[in-house]
Fold PLP-dependent aspartate aminotransferase family protein.
Amino acid sequence: MKIESLLIHGGIDGDEKTGAVSVPIYQTSTYKQEALGKNSGYEYSRTGNPTRDAVEKLIADLEEGYRGFAFASGLAAISAALMLFKSGDKIILSNNVYGGTFRVIDKVFKNFNINYELVDTSDLQKVKDSITEDVKAIFIETPTNPLMSITDISKVSEVARKNKVLTIVDNTFMTPYLQKPIKLGADIVIHSATKYLGGHSDLIAGFLVVNNEELGERVHFIQNSTGGILNPFDSWLLIRGIKTLSVRMDRHNENAEYVAEFLKENSLVEKVYYPGFETHPGHEIQKKQANGYGAIISFVLKDYIDRNKFFKGLKLIILGESLGGVESLISHPATMTHAAVPYDIRQEIGIVDGLIRLSVGIENKKDLVEDLKNALKFAK
Ligand SMILES: Cc1ncc(COP(=O)(O)O)c(C=O)c1O
């Protein structure tokens, strides 16, 4: 089955018992048992729930992985992945990952002596040089949030496998419609399903997909033991959102290309980060490993432009955290999504105070450009 069909019919398709086309919401905490030790396969909804099972099977199908897990947020999924490690282990981390990913490693897991090193994973030599005895995983985001830096998933996975370390890929920006890290050699794929997979800015959820049974058993043990599961209603909402992923992503891609060209040509814009540009570092790798460039664009305005006035001048594009919804969202990483990253590190990796991140929605692309044009004029 091709992915457009799999998005609609993958996982558990509807309800066998009644023929309902939509998977039922099993809003239950527990299950009646026939006798001691005799049950339907479900005992308690932290351990397993049929609606959550349906969305977990769906993401495993879409990512071509062995088993999927649905969590209460992207960060709950990331935390579960980090719980695979023990005191003394070290993780190599892409150097401009989402601020919350950095924060949970730096402020929570480091307290348990799980160490990390920030590495520019777009540079394979730097990845190779960073591998020491204690390194147990390479955690990459590609493209990164917010600088759209591209890492070669196949090459990094190869280095990781040679050194017996896991490759973990946060695939939030691409979704399995555009990029499949497990097929490229990764062991674990993570999503903030809050974003494109949900697609409508109406839920918080996360996914973790593994490529083998052993990792599946370990993640299930962690999920059941620590309890960061996705509830039945949000599992259902997520199934609903995923059905339209292909049409949404096609429109996201088309709109982003149009908006990125406008920003590039505008004299009030200093710099634009968009992997679709041939001049973007890693453009060729992106072309090789993904089926599109996604719809996140970061840009810097000329320093004489009043940033606050620019945000105020926008009438259609919404100033807010998050991305990947049908509506366009704009944010200021230094004070919003990446505020948890210390100032010095932000400067070092390029998250300057003037940087703006735009998540291009699926509105009419000409309306979006008109909105940006008017706000720039207002802020000049
Ligand atoms: C790339 C990426 N990964 C993970 C997360 C965290 O996901 P959540 O907000 O669903 O916990 C985000 C949130 O913005 C993100 O952008």
Summary: The chain has a mean pLDDT of 96.
